[in-house]
Amino acid sequence: MTRYVALLRGVNVGTTRIAMADLRRLVTDLGHADVQTYLQSGNVVFGSGVRDAGRLAAGIERAITDELGLSVPVLVRSARELAAIAGGNPYSTGEDDPTKLLVAFLATAPARSTVDALAVPGGENVAFTVTGREVYLHFPEGGYGRSKFTNAYLEKKLGVVATTRNWKSVRALADLAAGQSSR
User: Are strands 101-106 and 127-131 parallel, antiparallel or unpaired?
Assistant: First the structure.
């Protein structure tokens, strides 16, 4: 059985509300095991015999639509992938404040041309690195909340669905997926 993390886009941060108890039940009812949620923002850790992350994401999306009447994009990463993401942040060694680090998870790897054209909006100090289906973000002078370099901006410029998590959440989800308690 492989451990996975499902990351729901835009849950409980705007008008799309899902109770984590409902989310755990939905994922469990799909036949997945040891289902846990982390925080209230649509993070689900679970075990499954299914080896296709795209199929897992589609199944969770369909269950949310069928049972809750909501259309929510779902991105899935394996525990192994999440461990590599948590261990591969190019900005984590030079930054003592984890609130200045984030990861945008992408549904698919963006086209090289869109990655090459990606630029930080004028006047902002943001460092970013696109690696496959992730964008590592570093906001050295301030927070993500005041930036124009947002999840919506990344989706528009890269042409793919994205969902962003702060560094504390990324590390905690990696720990949970590995079967450890979160930091």
Answer: unpaired
